[in-house]
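Good day; I would like, with your permission, to put a structural problem before you. A protein sequence and the structure tokens that stand for its backbone fold form the material at issue. I would ask you to consider whether the tokens describe a fold that such a sequence might reasonably adopt. I set the record out below, with my sincere thanks for your time.
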Amino acid sequence: MKWSVFPKRFGLFPYIFLVYIGFPAVYLTKESGLKQLIGYGMLLLFLVTYRQLYFLIGKRNFTYWLAVQMAIIFIFSLFYHLNYMFLGFFPANFIGWYQDKTGFRRGLICLVVAEILPFIVHVIRTKTFFTPTELIYFVPFLLIMLISPFGIRSMNRRMELEKELDRANQKIEELVKREERVRIARDLHDTLGHTLSLLTLKSQLVQRLTATDPERARLEAKEMEVTSRAALKQVRELVTDMRAATITEELLQVQQILRAAGITYHYDGDSDFSSVSPFTQNIIGMCIREAATNVVKHSQATHCSIAIKHFSGKMNLIIHDDGMGLRNNHVFGNGLRGMEERLALVDGGLVLSNHNGTVLEINVPIIKKQ
């Protein structure tokens, strides 16, 4: 992994903020001896915390480094000069990155203590209150400092909402694409079903006419050729406009769906489906998706396994969950009927059974591509 001073996703912002480190560095030149040495040591540690906090946003150690940073500001303000309190703009920025309310409130309270307590100690120590000029100098900046975490947090929440909106839009686009795939599959079914029925009737007619009326049989056979070519053209047009979902894509999607539902997942089987046609992969993929949806909605399972095996001219797929299984009076629902209709397009079939849960077995003949 390539080393970098700050995460690239923050751009130039962290570098611009470093300008404000120059002021305490100048103030330390007025100190001498051990106090000056300790001061530069703390300033160096402050720079380290500043860098680390950018890399640890949202992680466990983030709070520890933030506490160190505020402790350094507190020591500087208490034992060196009150002007060091302006370093509080650094932790104020990082406090705004807390996503949980508890962490945000604790960080804000600690910042208030680290900034206000040195003022109180200064008044007690000098036994004099601040002049109006000093109040005008400190108070506005202090208020801005304590309000800024709310602004940073609001900005981060808005950015997160925009990301979630982008993800939602991508999901909607994907759902629209999948719906279109289903529509095209149904169009294929309707088109091919009608055409194949017509070809079946004509082939039976040709068989009867071969002996009695060879000329008409020849004409009917010619019509069969024209009809089959038209159907082939329709199929090619539909498939050209369709990017079929692959089995691999659907398996990844199913893994995410099951894990999101708190169901453990295990896959056993082949990983190369290049020998399966895109249309068949689309049909099998939709069946896998429908089966996973049924597991999430109806099974009350805690574990689901999927196994896919290639045999000679056939693909065998088994989806097994450890849920409550099938009821005695089980009737196929719309989802399973849809799976049966899709599988019928590729001469496939399914069997549903009970075995320590529900077992769905799908068998599809595979024509090897030459």
Remarks:
- The chain has three domains: 8-129, 177-240, 247-365.
- The beta strands are 264-269, 303-311, 314-321, 349-354, 358-365.
- The first strand starts at residue 264 and ends at 269.
